[in-house]
Queue: 2 jobs
Job 1
Amino acid sequence: MEKLFDVAIIGAGPGGYVAAIRCGELGLDTVCIDDWKDEQDQPRLGGTCLNVGCIPSKALLESSEHYERAALHLGEHGIQVGSVDLDLPTMMARKEKIVQTLNQGIGQLFKKNQVAWLQGRARFAAANGSWTLEVESNGNPEPVSARHVIIATGSRPAELPFLPFDGGRVVDNVGALAFDAVPKRLGVVGAGVVALELGSVWRRLGSRVTVIEPHSFLHHADEQVAREALRQFKAQGLDIHADTTATGGKATKKQVTLTLKNASGERDEAFDKVLVAIGRRPNSENLGAEKVGLQVDARGFIPVDELCRTNLPNVWAVGDVVRGPMLAHKASDEGIMVAERIAGQATRVNYAAIPNVIYTHPEIAWVGETEQALKAAGREYRKASYPFAANGRALAAAEGAGFVKLLADARTDRLLGVHIIGPKASELISEAVVALEFSASSEDLARIVHAHPTLSEALRDAAMMLLSR
Amino acid sequence: MLVEIKVPALSESVSEATLLSWHKTAGEYVRRDENLIDLETDKVVLELPAPHAGKLAKIVMGDGATVKAGDVIALLDTDAKDEAIEEAPAKAAAVAAVEKPALSPAARKLAEEQGVQPEEVAGSGRGGRVTKEDVAARLEARPAAIEVRAVDMTPLLGERPEQRVPMTRLRQRVAERLVQAQSTAAILTTFNEVNMQPVMDLRAKYKDRFEKEHGVKLGFMSFFVKAAVKALKQFPIVNASVDGNDIVYHGYYDIGIAVGTERGLVVPILRNADQLSFAEIEAGIAEFGRKARDGKLTIEELSGGTFTLSNGGVFGSMLSTPILNPPQSAILGMHKTTERPVAENGQVVIRPMMYLALSYDHRIIDGREAVLSLVAIKEALEDPARLLLEV
């Protein structure tokens, strides 16, 4: 008889591979199916996050920040370096090596936890008490049966209808992580995480970067943070056009022309490359959903409840292919929850305490409610902001821009939201997430000893400000 | 004053319940409406809230006891006042009212797994926060409750494990009713097959507009409910039931929809299905699915019914003989739609085919009515326009 797995996982991104490893740890007989291949046609674990997302972009952000610092800012420390030259191939090779190291790391964790790894594309084939998937690689379909299926197929970049990706001048995140030369004029459509991070990378390396955002700038972040970010990025030379829509475009051999429309009218602007980062679409096609009656909504998302259960028994879905923010850590935690639920545990994901991070300079990070959301909900709150310009450690590091902002319930003092723009905001936010998870009050933060001098004192000082009011 | 805590009226069809686990011990103070105990009937699990604030003076019936409606299971002393409970609201109003006890993430998980109510744990953390340690301490203090957890039968290599688990009341009742049906009715099954192409085409054509218009997906179940109601109208005996030496004809069409859940099979009832639109049927079934999954179906929703649809097709069943759901006299078994070669006008063609099975009580339904009613269902599905025109 053909083998029956306890769990089959479709996708090996941060939702799928984390779920697979957790299933393995829990003693479940697990198979993870993934069809990601690199340019050399080699299978690669880790999905978008590891291969063309979170990790390689962080590598380039770090490198480009060093480059900019060396070129512009070492002087103020009294360090003269003469001329600074960019060696882009080396920078790219370093990025690639980091990705490969982590690719192999996942493979080793699969081995250690006895997770079977199948390369190919999986689709539902039949339901017969358990679930049968058909895994196709190189044209040979192979059946895989499992009691539980976790769909973790992720998402892909959305295209502009009038300007499809061409892999050359009009690119998505994949292309913008691998330019072979610094484009002179880079147009970025969208102003989300991908747009701002990769826009920052190429600006630091010498591109003139224009960001086009149809809404107000960073509209999902706290408004005060968004205003500060806009000020900082503009000062750095990012040319940001909010409330501007790209209504048309044309790519030729030499350049890409975008038609931009805002309140004052319409005009054309030419670029050498255009990064389209207007959001991502869930990967739910070719899953055989119709075959087994798996629900997929009109936008392609798979409807699930708060425990990631789909409409089918023992079929779960996690990550970008379901509701909620498209974040790697959200996918991973959903993956862990589902693995532990399959093993009979009562794990939950606290969707109210998922941190958001944008790795620009300064970094932006937040968790919980924004001030405008609290206002709209008619909730009574108190707030305090503490500037990094008053934080010793930040000043010593020449990182005095930005602030920490706390929002707390006016009656109970329970923390409702924490917003940080400033140095290492991505790291500082974890303290706020822990605080929210433990239902902390702002006074709790004020009454916990923080080391001095540290950036984290800014959180504590913001809490002290709230306390003294 | 001592107030008797009684088992509430369950429902006409439910006579007994099992006390699952007391959330309070004798001598403990309770707030009004605080859940005292969970009762499991053969259909649902009910919570029994405290009718008044007071002290739980005595527990008359312990965990696991079988009780009837009206049985006294505990005594509540409404004169006893707990200072902590009395004073707490006043204090809370002055300082800060916390909506729910604050739990750490690990404490929350442990409490949920072990069925500990956060309210019953005294928090030792900063600001009275309930920690993992607090939940663990509460668990140790609690008398061993009946284990009703899912069984993990993943065998370790080389082991031949065996585990004896008492049937839940729901399972017992299902077992009892199935055996009763088998031993009293003269069950016979007639089969037919239906070409699903017309329904599939109609659904493919309108499913987007249907969803937009009605906010619910157009599935196949609404077609089957409609087709079944049409057949039942044509052959009223199939919608009837036996009561002693009488046949009771029902002038209404309450269709049971069998739903598999983690706790066992439940059959919520779609009332007056003849008066429901396709959208109302789909919405009703979707709602049942959600409620069944969350264990939120009420006794009312699970009682009665004049005919049942059982869809083994979702699990891949090709053919089966469903057992009656007494006192109903017939049940329709749906199965998996599979592409099969069939002969049509002298040609072999591929069609999406489903086998249908109608089990019926031969005591009151003759083969003729049974077969013809199944044919009527088949014909309505193969030409759905008939559902509209009622021909």
Job 2
Amino acid sequence: MSRKDPDRFRQGKARWVVLALVGLTAALVLVPFVIMLMNAFKSPADYSSNGPLAWPESFQLDGLKTYWQQVHFEGKLLNSIVISGSVAVLGVVLSLLNAYALGIGRVRGRMWIVALFLMANMIPQEALVYPLYSMAKSFGLYNSQLSVIIIFTVIQSAFGTYLLASVLGTFPKALLEAAALDGASRWTTLWRVVVPTVRPTLSVLLIFFFIWTWNEFFIPLVMLIDNSTQTVPLALASLQGDRLMDATTTNAGALISLLPTVVFFLIFQRTLTRGVTVGAVK
Amino acid sequence: MSRGKAGFWWYLLPGALAFTAIIAVPFGANLYLSLTKWSGVGDPRWIGLDNYSRLLQDDVFWTSFRNTAAMVIAMVVVPTLIGLVLSATLFDVIGRRFGPKTASFLRATFYLPQVLPVVVAGILWGWLLRPDGAVNAIAKAIGLGEHDWLGDPKTALPMVMLVMIWVQIGYPVVIFMAALQRVDPDLYEAAEIDGAGWFRRFQAITLPQIRPETFVVTLTCTIAALKVFGPIWALTRGGPNNATTVPSYFAYNAFFNKLQVGYGAAVATALTLVIVAVSIGFLKVQGRVEE
Amino acid sequence: MRSPRTMISMGAAIVSLALVLAGCNSGGDDAGSDGGGEKGGTLKLWHYESANGAMGKAWDQAIEVFKAEHPGVTVEFERKAFEQIQQNASMILGSDQAPDLMEYNKGNATAGLLSSKGLLTDLSDEVASRGWDKALSPSLQTTARYDEKGVMGSGNWFGIPNYGEYVTVYYNKALFKQHGVAVPKTLDELTAAMDTFVAKKVTPLGMSGAEYPAGQLYYQLALSKADRSFVDNYQLYKGAVDFKADPLKYGADTFRQWVDKGYISKQSASLKAEDMGTAFIAGKTPMIVSGSWWYGRFASEIKKFEWGTFLFPGNKLNAGSSGNLWVVPEQSKNKKLAYDFIDITMRPEIQTIMANNGGVPVKADLSKVTDPKNKELIANFDAITKADGLAFYPDWPVPGYYDVLVAGGQSLINGSKTPDQVLTDLGKAYDQGVQEIKNG
């Protein structure tokens, strides 16, 4: 009795069809970005006369140069990197500590504790802004990057705690027992056994926290007043006036603002593919 | 664990302190503000539950919650389903047959909308959906006819939903693809040997194995959908005629445009309570399934 | 790959760096750019006008003049995002991070509100001693003075405007010539002109329903049937405003008529002001009714056809006001330097720079203006102010009224509500808002 090949994707044309479909979907997703690229390299007169959807008459780098100099982009870039990087690292650490207690320690009432931490994500930011402003002012942290770092560490670690606690909740007991048998303390177990195993998840969190914090606009708008402390999204906002807006420079600025996050994502994507699976039990 | 659970509480200390300072205290302040009348400067004036009774009679408030249902579909249901299929396809089929680099590249492409500042997304989609924009050009070509997509109250919300799907797809794809790596490949091999096809394996092994991540994705997307603000602000400012307004935008409008901070605080509190209720429901289901 | 220990040390390094940077940035009052501000002081100055606009250029020059006249004083100029100031002004001005001098929006909801809460310095004494009131016509002074409740028109001086703005009609001379249309001098002539365009299948009036232009057209139409007492009632709450009677009823009805007759495209409900402007620049639109703030951009970007402006035909009252104000926060640490700067901006040479770059200065010497279209723009504004014809803007009376107006405009364009329904909505929001203001 011949068995029908159960995996018909092993060879043949089907896989090309799948690739084409996925590729087409990806291309559609990219359409707005193509438009952004087109307009980033247009001259303002070209954009006004021919509209945003027309191919540029000529490719100009002026928009990019003007934007960079006008908003002192190097400073904004540094601020964003510092803030997003700090939040990413601190957020992952905080999430790890919380999730360790909740997912592996399985402390009592952990569902309620997770829900409580998640509140940080559930409250609309407008509700927090006035009280946070007052607190920051009284601590002398208003208009400082530290205020933004602290706030976002808490907000992002809410998600991190939830995700990690869920994942650690299904952590193989065999590994933990093996470590306990070796006489490892809770602290050692955390760093030597748990962390290496859930590294893919930690990497995901690191990437997400960095990107989400990078694009945050509202709270930095409230907290960071001096141009020297401001981040990349705020710099972009400076192109939008009361009644007039500079479209080509905005697109050029968006392109420049986008590149660091894309680069960051591409670099850290590799760690996602190099993850260690739970199969290490063997 | 022989040492008992008491020691684990120490690990929660930093998180608890930070949470109290950044979330609990301000939320308490917000609660207080919701019982006052305040323009943002000067002193708040106590008015008790007036804001809440006004809220219950405010049509726009209820409309904003109705629109939230649409947001949930566009930001939770559709992206999660598409995300599951896409991530499995990318991981299994494309990753294995065409190499991990192709899969990574495609994944990055799908994630790109998540990385774009929402204000810029609003501008770009605004251009596409303009009466003389690309969407109308395509609609005319396929015989659908031109339309003012964002200016007509009937089509504005569906269009916003479309944009939200575009924005959200990347997030489940990335999370699920990371989750798929946790799955023991031995399980797949065993199933293949037993004669299970791709879909059967997907159903019986993949889905249950990545259940924690599925819960996380659906819950966080739901919270995000309930809380959504940026894209609404960037695309339609809640219009036309409140056709696309959502509670967050409604609160923002009260806080910063109308300078009715107390009323805005009441809206924010109401929204938070809804989100908390939904989340607790979710977590209970997840807890029961995990046992 | 990376051991946990490395990750932690990396983290610690980043956190330390962050704390150090934060320490350098917080506080901020000693952050002179070259540290040389000790002797003469520092002037922390903010505005949000674009660098290549009329005000941006004029104020850059003013900074140079200031530096020359105040050696030893460091000028810390920061160009801000309008969004940030608009949303957070009360927070900024209520802290010690406020600047010494800044540009701020005029009107009850903005300058009025902050002045009533004591966040702005009362400039009345300076005005008297430096003669700024002589430079500003009474029409323009309305938006510079606010009473204790924050209502404009009377009371102490809280801001000084350098420029003005008003709503006018921009027209494409080439399209007018092509279709044989002359510049209309009355409202009837305007409708006749638009009929001509419609007959030739050209939509005569560009419009944007998603932003301010729709509301401004509705207001201009209403003003064609209004007098000064209406403006006083509507803007200064001097009396009740009936939304179901003329002039506002005329404004909404006529707006709807214009949509029905094809003067305004039914698909403009979702267009932004930017879309309306770029369509005009591209030469597709015969006319738009919008503000003098477009002038500089049109002048630099329209190269393919002749264009011009004319006042909204037949109106004695026009939407418009003084430009944004220079305000001195109460927390300003160098008020005298701030006053000196304001004084410099009012000088003829600075005003002339503004005039020659497409702006509308408050005190222009027309003989120094080189471009004839510029001259016309400014002359028209002077004519309006001399006749006390500034009627401010329709969204000013009530905080948050802008969104209500936008919703109303969109409904008038896409036909989802009748003019009567729109007027009801507008009236309700207006009455509620005024009620709140009156009850404090």
